[in-house]
Amino acid sequence: MAARLLLRTCSLRALQLRGGTVGRPLQRAVASAGGIPTDEEQATGLERRTLQALKQGKDPYSILKPKQYTGTKADPHIVPSIGNKRMVGCLCEEDNTAIVWFWLHEGEPQRCPSCGSHYKLVHHELPH
Questions:
Q1: Which helix (H) or strand (E) holds 49?
Q2: What is the pTM of this model?
Q3: 9, 19, 61, 77: least buried by Cβ within 10 Å?
Q4: Each residue of 34-84: pLDDT tens digit?
């Protein structure tokens, strides 16, 4: 340890005596704007389209948490689908360990056969 320190001190002293200047350590180059690029600047392709849609307030790939609905006939849980039917699982109670599965068809809201919550299938187009 002492030998390294002595060697480093001697080499720096020799450079100063020879007239050479001891420069600053090299720094890493960063983005062209003088800083680290943001996610929007660095994103390309599908990721860039997704970030632009999120800026506009859209949720193209259902990334965000869905809205809370009451589950009544007037305000049913909305289930997006690209087809005319979809399999839905309902946890009827918060601490329930069994999931009640049933088919949800396009049209009028349908009830869960166990707890009575209403679900409505809404046609959803894929963004790509």
A1: helix 45-55
A2: 0.54
A3: 19
A4: 788 888 889 998 889 888 888 888 887 777 777 888 899 999 999 988 889
